[in-house]
Amino acid sequence: xxxxxxxxxxxxxxxxxxxxxxxxxxxxxxxxxxxxxxxxxxxxxxxxxx
Length: 50
What we know:
Order of helices and strands: EEEH
Oligomer: single chain
Radius of gyration: 13 Å
Pfam families: DUF4295
InterPro entries: DUF4295
Helix content: 10-25%
Distance between the termini: 12 Å
Protein name: DUF4295 domain-containing protein
Strand content: 35-45%
Organism: Arcicella rosea
Number of domains: 1
Structural class: mainly beta
């Protein structure tokens, strides 16, 4: 599962960013860890796929 959280990481008139939090399952233990990324808003779909 992935959760998209919009962050206010821009200046006035600048590029828009989004913060993505992914839950990644460890195959050995079965525990979940969370991976955070800050990407351009246009690249959110591609970041969530892979």
